[in-house]
Amino acid sequence: MLSVVTRHFMRQSANISPIMKAAEKTAAMLGRRQAQPGRMFAQQNSLANLPVPPLQQTLYKYLLALKPILSTEDYEATQAIVSEFGKPGGYGEKLQMGLILRSQKMENWLSDWWLDKAYLEFRSPVVMHVSPGVVFPRENYRGVEGQLDFASRLIAGVVDFKQLIDSNSLPVDYMSGQPLCMDQYYKILSSCRVPGVKKDSVVLYPPNKPDAPRHIIVAYNNHLFSLDVYDSNRKPLPLTELHSQLKRIVAESPFPAIPLNILTSEHRNVWGKIYKKMSKDKINRASFEEIKRSIFMVCLDKPVYSEETDHIENFAHHCAKQALYGGGSTANSCNRWFDKTLQFIVGADGDIGLQYEHCTAEGPPITALIDHSLHYAHNTPLDSRQTLSIERSAPKRLEFNLDRATLEVIDDAKCNIDSLGNDVQICCFSFEPFGKDLPKSQRISPDAFIQLAIQLAFFKIYGHSTATYESASLRKYKFGRTDTIRSATIESDSFVRIMMDQTKKPSEKAHQMRKAIQAHRENTNAVPAKHDVTMLFGPVVPDGYGICYNPQEDHINFGVTAFNTARETDSQKFGQKLAESLLDMQYVLSKVPPQAKL
């Protein structure tokens, strides 16, 4: 069965079969309310612990999710299995009691399991399979000088956001009037995934510790530099000083380094074994520690796109590849450290983006950081702060000792990232006829509207509905991560079938559309990112789709991915059918008057 994942930037969802991942957006954006010291965790103690749903409710919802995607025969067989599982005194009740006992001892019985099973025990490469890429709007500079200018302002913007986190000054996020857990904000900076032989781990360096990190990692020409972004008094460096330090890094790295960094794109067991062996060396161990402790990473990418000579892809497609996996070993994949939680990408061609390793946090805190940092970068001139007489350290190049065996694995890793990049189909486009203003004008949820369009697009291609995973926030509970919305419902299946029936009137189609939207609205809530960004990630299953969307007022940004090795999938075709489905739904709504808000 085919599978799709969609992400609403920033809101997550995963399997249709297509699976749908949608990354959540912060419900209350920075700037809408004035930040106040100590406000960030003001509502934390009022949050409830994650409850254990009643067993029969879980089984009922499970069957409800399967009904639109299984044949009658398969559904009846599954129904019998579920009935046996849920009998009094059976396995279901015993397991349910285990969950209840666990929940009585923990504030969140699910979060540790989620971290381990969804991320740390996952052994495929984090590139494409785990880590999303985010494409920012193209900047108007060209060349190294403009690149370093913007990178300096972006760094300063992220550090400024960190100051709000460190001082607990961020306003509390809310969704539908409910306060949300703010714990993930502490985990997006100064954190890193660490490879293991059979299971990875994650390290965090909280800002309230005496030895809290004060440096970032800058990647240029495959070299890695540790750069202090605070002076000796823990004050952020002036923009002119950041710019000067970045120029120094570029000047000291005219030739590419041996691309050790590419090993972070390998299968986790392979990388884990190499990491363990390399860590026995004192110099390697010190460099690894510097990367892990860094606040975030900035990748100063070399130019690899020419508008005059590159006829194969447009610039948006180029930027999507850079954000998702670096574009390959001859582009910028070797100028990354894919284990680092946040890697800001600043290219010499004005291409800007972010890749983030997913294990520490979901989308909302990262979206808030992006919006704040881009606003800061665009509104803070380079010469706005004078360089003062400060004590500072020069950028420090990280050194590594590599043996022959490691060099051979590096060559293998370069081939593997190229194979992975060649296998992924990317369809990155902006749907221009309308944005979220249209469904809002009809008193319809934009998220539910787009989700139905995805269902319709899939049905047009394959002639049946499929399992759809869209993630929803659990942050209204302490330390909550994500829950699963099964966007393929009985109502959505009825909707796509009636939409394809030429004998049905627009009023009948609109009526079923609203029923399907109401079913979706009972399970979800979402807000898009402020900036005009596009998110994308690889399919989470071999024969699946990865679909991301960011609805703006008058257009919708989409990123659709699939694998070439799956003959059944085609991201370009899906993107075309998705645009067509949105127009079909617009036509239906234009023929009937608006109704109650959905």
Structure description:
With 598 residues, the protein is of the alpha+beta class. It has 2 domains: 3-36 and 432-590, Chloramphenicol Acetyltransferase (2-Layer Sandwich); 134-424, 2-Layer Sandwich (Chloramphenicol Acetyltransferase). It has helices at residues 55-66, 72-85, 91-105, 111-120, 126-129, 144-166, 239-251, 268-278, 282-293, 315-324, 363-379, 404-423, 437-441, 446-462, 490-499, 506-521, 571-590, and strands at 3-8, 11-12, 133-135, 174-175, 178-179, 191-194, 201-204, 215-220, 223-228, 297-301, 342-347, 352-356, 396-397, 424-431, 468-473, 482-486, 534-536, 544-551, 556-563. The strands form 4 sheets. It has an 8-stranded mixed beta sheet with strand order 13-9-8-10-11-12-3-17, sandwiched between helices. α10 links the parallel β10 and β11 (342-347). α6 crosses α7 (239-251), α14 packs across α15 (490-499) and α15 (490-499) runs antiparallel to α16. The radius of gyration is 24 Å and the shape is globular. The protein starts with a strand and ends in an 8-residue tail after the last helix. The model is unreliable at 9-37 (pLDDT under 50).
- Broad structural category: alpha+beta
CATH topology assignment of the largest domain? Chloramphenicol Acetyltransferase
Rg, Å, rounded: 24 Å
CATH architecture of the largest domain: 2-Layer Sandwich
Number of helices: 17
Contiguous runs where pLDDT drops below 50 for at least 5 residues: 9-37
Q: For the report, how would you describe the main beta sheet?
A: 8 strands, mixed
Please tell me what the overall shape is: globular
Q: Termini distance?
A: 31 Å
Q: Give the full name of the CATH homologous superfamily of the largest domain.
A: Choline/Carnitine o-acyltransferase, domain 2
Identify the strand order in the major beta sheet: 13-9-8-10-11-12-3-17
**How many discrete structural domains?**
2
Percent of residues in helical segments? 25-40%
Quaternary state reads single chain
Strand content: 15-25%
The CATH class designation of the largest domain is Alpha Beta
The tally of strands reads: 19
Average pLDDT, rounded to a whole number, is: 89
